[in-house]
Amino acid sequence: MPPTSQSDHNDSFRSRFELRTLLDTSRLLVESNDLEFVLNNLLLICMGKLLTTKGLLLLYERDSRHYRVAKSKGVTGYKEKQLVNLDCEEMLKKTEVLTAQSGAEGDCMPKQLMENGIEIVFNIRTSNEHLGLLCLGKKAGSRQYTRHELEFIENLVIISAVGISNSLLVARLKRANRELDKKVQEMHTLFDISREFNAMVERPQILNVFKFALLGQMFIRSFFFLMDDEDHPEMLTLSGIRGELTEKEMRLMLDRFSDVKRLDAATRQEFPFLDENGIEALIPVRIQQEKALLGVGKRATGETYSESDFNFLSSLGNVALLSVLKTYLLEERIEKERLEEELTIARTIQKRLFPDELPSPAGYEMAAVNVPSQQVGGDYYDCIMHGDDYLYMAIADVTGKGIPASLLMANLQAMLHVIAPLGIGLSESTAKINDIIFKNTPSDKFISFFWGCLDLKNNRFTYCNAGHNPPVFVRAKSDEAMYLSTGGMLLGALPSTFPYDSETVQLGPGDVIMMYTDGVSEAMDSDENEYGETRLVDCILQNKTGTARAILDEVLEDVKLFCNNNYNDDLTALVVKVK
């Protein structure tokens, strides 16, 4: 065996040193979840190893299909955070490492990089994702890069890509957690405000709480809140606003803006009042036929409004408007004879809780009915559209009758209209509703409650049953019925010690879901026999080929004949059928 030369010994030592460097660096970068640390170390190690004074790290942004300058060392011609448009598709297909010399031969190095003194480019990628580019200038003394040096850096880049990918993932998770924390905080704020509103009957108190919520939660110093009060608009409250809106201007704004509007130059010119007061956005608020408009100025923090902020403001306005409307209903009837006045107020409140008309989503039929056994009942149903693809449906039965039942029903309706636009899961939302009702109602008051979210795009129905009569689910191709019973205990009976469950069912053409209160199943004949669930299911199966309205009418007629039109309880039902 020939003796080992000094050169071979030096090469072996250098290889072991570089291998140790790669191992140590890989452990350092892969284990770190700090993107700034990973990028800074990668660039400094490469520049130190290759003895270059110019280095650039570009991260690829998939949404914009541009590169963002993450790190820039030396005179690169780029500033950190700068957005750079590079046509790199061909370059990334051909090679992992590209030098300026190969680019001169037409090997696709971006001309923009070459003009800024970039000599070599490494593609930073994992096995399935392009992350960015490592760009380095010339070596000191204008020497050429050796193949050994390029292989070392390429291996380092491959190792670093894992650390960069992990760091980006952690950063995205942190952002998502921050957004989730913000959502949870907003939800708690809305629940707290809703609880405060439910305890108030004076309009100034309600509007003060609303004002403090805007100031404290959203840091909004200037705003106004006006309502369409039947014959003429009314400015409910304002803060930091100069001048006055004429009735004509208020009417025009209430009629004009049915969606959230970020103010543009044309709107500011049309309404100088908005421009003079620095109003940034207008948020419409609507509860059935009642509508209001919330105008908000710049935030004290300087942050721009996000879609999430607008959703929160809309929900907050909804709660405030509902509470304000409640005060108007109470005030309008205060001078009438007490018993008649109370019954009229309660019945009016209850009517406002039911939708004036059911939604008409494509591919579905809906029908509903409410027959109170007294002037004021304790049953409730509602349908709330969330965007274009989701429809919330709810049905409930409050213990007792008359005014107490209707007011408790009003509280439930307010909470549903606050929660539905937030898109929170049914199980968590039901638990929150239960806790609020438990804390704010007497021990003998509780609610049987069922609600679900219909995914109109995918024909899936997710539901949660809180101690209510299980709705009947009939498939078009089956002669049997399912009962939608997954959920938990009654609302208001006990605190949410155990979580509520939810379940999803897939719907097909002709499938029918019928929700109902116990006024249907417990209707009695002259011998005090109950109508029962068996008769109800048989009636639905016999008429399942009809429309939703036809199915509902047949059930009502069958119950009416059974009890000889003598209802001993409120009767409420909601039918939805897939066309």
Structure, briefly:
This protein has 579 residues and is α+β, with helices and mostly antiparallel strands. The chain is 44% helix and 23% strand. Strand 1 and strand 2 form a beta hairpin.
Overview features:
22 strands; Phosphatase 2c, domain 1; Beta-Lactamase; 579 residues; six-stranded antiparallel beta sheet; six-stranded mixed beta sheet; alpha+beta
Number of domains: 3
CATH topology of the largest domain: Phosphatase 2c, domain 1
Distance between the termini: 87 Å
Portion in beta strands: 15-25%
- The CATH architecture of the largest domain is 4-Layer Sandwich
In DSSP terms (H or I, runs of 4 or more residues), the helix count works out at 17
Give the averaged pLDDT, no decimals.
83
| Main CATH class of the largest domain | Alpha Beta
Any low-confidence stretches, pLDDT <50, length ≥5? 4-14
Rg to the nearest angstrom? 33 Å
The CATH homologous superfamily name of the largest domain equals PPM-type phosphatase domain
> Structural class of the secondary structure composition?
alpha+beta
Largest sheet: 6 strands, antiparallel
Strand order of the largest sheet: 3-2-1-6-5-4
Tell me the overall shape: elongated
* Count of distinct strands: 22
Indicate the percent of residues in helices: 40-55%
